[in-house]
Design a protein that fits this description.
209 residues, Tumour Suppressor Smad4, 2 domains, five-stranded mixed beta sheet, 19 strands, 4% helix
Length: 209
């Protein structure tokens, strides 16, 4: 089950399980999560649940809605995202399994184009041959129970992999060909050479079933 952790000054105020199809934030006492502060609009933001996805939407608030310190109007939430609402922080946590993540993130190799310069190739399992594009955004694989991996670009354009919850010294810079194991699925990190003029070579295509 998805969960929201409401924090103020690094202190946890409450944990809110996401059971309904929507969750509202605001200064109004009628909000699902009421945040009594002048920095919060009466109707500030809303999370809408669509199947396995949770979308955050700003409701034209005065001070805006942020995710990981970036101003957003609408955002598909990923595990570990930090929502900024005035002086409050709300951490989004999910227990989605890898199978659900692959269904949402993976792409058939026939759909690759010139924008796909960095990707993870699925080597085994039901989605063998598919890819997960890494388009300058972070990807979380696995869940908190079985273990999570976070892959995201750094300021130098390198992709860093770390185990969620571990210290920074456990970070690993990925190189083309590196294999990553999450639950019972193996991934390979792939990257088009920066000076290559040709289109990225697609991985071996999955067999039609």
């Amino acid at each position: 089950m998805n969960q929201l952790i409401v924090m103020l000054d690094k202190q946890i105020l409450r944990r809110f399980p996401v059971k309904a199809t929507s969750v509202t934030f605001g200064r109004s006492s009628k909000s699902d999560i009421a945040l009594p502060d002048r920095t919060i609009s009466n109707h500030h933001a809303r999370i809408t649940v669509v199947r396995e996805d949770c979308f955050l939407e700003d409701l034209e608030s005065t001070n805006g809605t942020y995710v990981n310190q970036l101003l957003v109007d609408r955002h598909l939430l990923e595990d570990g995202d930090v929502i900024g609402l005035g002086k409050y922080q709300v951490v989004f946590r999910t227990e989605l399994g890898l199978e659900s993540q692959l269904k949402r993130l993976s792409l058939h190799p026939k759909l690759m184009d010139s924008t796909h310069t960095v990707w993870l190739q699925v080597l085994d399992g039901r989605k063998a041959g598919y890819i997960i594009p890494l388009l300058q955004e972070r990807v979380v694989l696995g869940n908190l129970t079985t273990g999570q991996l976070l892959i995201e670009p750094d300021s130098q354009g390198q992709y860093i992999m770390r185990h969620v919850g571990m210290n920074a010294h456990a970070n690993r810079t990925l190189a083309p060909g590196d294999e990553i194991r999450v639950e019972d699925v193996t991934f390979q990190f792939c990257r088009k050479a920066p000076n290559a003029n040709s289109e990225p070579q697609p991985p071996e295509q999955p067999a039609d079933t």
